[in-house]
Specification:
globular; seven-stranded mixed beta sheet; Aldehyde Dehydrogenase, Chain A, domain 1; alpha/beta; 21% strand; 2 domains; Aldehyde Dehydrogenase, Chain A, domain 2; six-stranded mixed beta sheet; 24 strands; single chain
Length: 497
């Protein structure tokens, strides 16, 4: 499906062919049990298709295919130039089929089509293209040993990788893991989130078309407690790499310990502190970034700036600006290119977010929002919501809501701001605004987070690592550092005669 000119996206959606099967060893297949579950669009509550409900049996088949492919070297021992060419071809195919992929993403999890087209598709293609270019630029090492000893340090693919991705950025999160894992020569069993499986299923076919050999990339659809757990406990998977909630991340750690002590990488939850200090000279830019940082993607972001920490002297001015942004970002039809705020991923998550809003009404002062919207559509929509006078110990300030809900916390000065930002079990992201470079340096070094944005928020590039401190995870996605997860280092000693 090529990108149409001035498309009617609703019309395009009606013509879309949607695949719901798993992809194992180069073929689309039903679940071994023949069980399925409904794929429901949060846009309007209609059923899009049925998804194969894979379980232990399906995971076993996928792992067997992945292991056979890895052991015979069809990909793991392929010349780096070949892997590079295939991954570049895959990036091209993602772009060529961008309209179809964007539409699947929007229908499946409710994000605005404008974002799927302008953010998700380009970022996914760039990720595969960037790691393709890195394939033949990673060199092994020779250690500085004695003159009669040659000691080499080689980077080898890990083996069979289990990849479990979330529902909020299905394509991008898959790319962040698949691209470096494939570039390194691994075979993969991917389990997409049950709430948003469609683009992963389509991606598997594009990968095969690009030249990824059978068995190298397998997609098993299914529920987390069945297919996800089976991947975590599998004795023939060498590593599991997960993005999702901290609670599930802890299960992944347990599964590793209970099975074969497989390598794990975890990118988990967040409750990011977004600080704006009194010496920030551009409050308009700061307020816009704060609004975007919580309302973009319906707030369904692990790095969302959900705690807005405001220095008392500028608190009123910033809050007023954010309220204006919130009023201008009301939920709309995700298939309308003008919509900036789309649907929540499903009814279950909508109810979860509304429960947090109910809690917030008891803990703080509701300034705007707090209600569901567009109920007549049958979809899942929530108004941008802002709470003021929030204690940092409140439930809405400490627990990850994963919705368009902002908690405003007032402080006095940078020291208190840093203290509040760090009073969290999470440490994924943070932001700080100030015109004083000394203050910025102090804050960015003192804040315990994997990513700290200074005079910006949610800046992003594939060249920089992404991951968290504390209970936000283990390891990093993106950049060359991602290869550390998907490879093993081997030291070889050769004594010369």
């Amino acid at each position: 499906m090529t990108k149409p000119t001035n498309p009617n996206w609703a019309e395009q959606a009606s013509k879309l062919s949607i695949q719901g099967k798993s992809f194992i060893n180069g073929q689309y297949v039903n679940a071994a049990s023949e069980q399925t579950f409904d794929c429901i669009s949060p846009i309007d509550g209609r059923k899009l298709t049925q998804i194969a409900a894979g379980n232990q049996v399906d995971v076993d088949k996928a792992v067997a295919a992945a292991r056979a492919a890895f052991n015979d070297g069809r990909w793991s021992r392929a010349h780096p130039a070949k892997r590079k060419a295939v991954l570049l071809r895959l990036a091209d195919l993602i772009e060529q089929n961008g309209a179809e992929l964007a539409l699947l993403e929007t229908l499946d999890m409710g994000k605005p089509i404008r974002d799927s087209l302008s953010i998700d598709i380009p970022a996914t293609a760039r990720c595969f293209r960037w790691y393709a270019e890195a394939v033949d630029k990673l060199y092994d090492e020779v250690a500085p040993t004695a003159h009669n000893v040659l000691a080499t340090i080689t980077r080898e693919p890990l083996g069979v990788c289990g990849v479990i991705v979330p529902w909020n950025f299905p394509l991008i999160m898959a790319a962040w893991k698949l691209a470096p894992a494939l570039a390194a020569g691994n075979s993969i069993v991917l389990k997409p989130a049950e709430q948003s499986s469609l683009t992963a299923i389509r991606l598997a076919a594009l990968a095969a078309e690009a030249g990824i050999p059978d068995g190298v990339l397998n997609v098993v659809t299914g529920l987390g407690q069945e297919a996800g757990q089976a991947i975590g406990l599998h004795m023939d998977i060498d590593g599991v790499f997960f993005t999702g909630s901290t609670a599930v991340g802890k299960y992944i750690m347990q599964y590793s310990a209970q099975s074969n002590m497989k390598k794990i990488g975890l990118e988990c939850g967040g409750k990011s502190g977004h600080i704006i200090l009194a010496d920030c000279g551009d409050l308009n830019a700061a307020a816009e970034a704060a609004a975007f940082g919580i309302f973009f993607n319906q707030g369904e972001m692990c790095s969302a700036g959900s705690r807005l920490i405001l220095d008392a002297p500028i608190r009123d001015a910033v809050v007023e600006k954010i309220l204006n942004f919130a009023k201008g970002m009301q939920p709309g039809d995700p298939l309308d290119p003008a919509t900036r705020l789309g649907a929540m991923v499903d009814q279950t998550h909508t109810e979860r977010v509304m429960d947090y809003i109910a809690s917030g009404k008891q803990e703080a002062e509701l300034l705007v929002g707090g209600k569901q919207a567009r109920l007549e559509t049958g979809g899942c929509y929530i108004e941008p919501t802002v709470f003021d006078k929030v204690s940092n110990q409140a439930r809405i300030a400490q627990e990850e809501i994963f919705g368009p809900v902002l908690s405003v916390i007032t402080v006095n000065g940078v020291d208190e701001a840093i203290q509040v930002a760090n009073e969290s079990i999470y440490g994924l992201a943070a932001g700080v605004w100030s015109d004083n470079v000394n203050t910025l340096y102090k804050a960015t070094r003192a804040i315990k987070a994997g990513v700290v944005y200074a005079n910006c928020y949610d800046a992003d590039d594939i060249t920089t690592p992404f991951g968290g401190y504390k209970q936000s995870g283990i390891g990093r996605d993106k950049s060359l550092h991602a290869f550390d997860k998907y490879t093993e280092l081997k030291t070889t000693w050769l004594r010369l005669r």
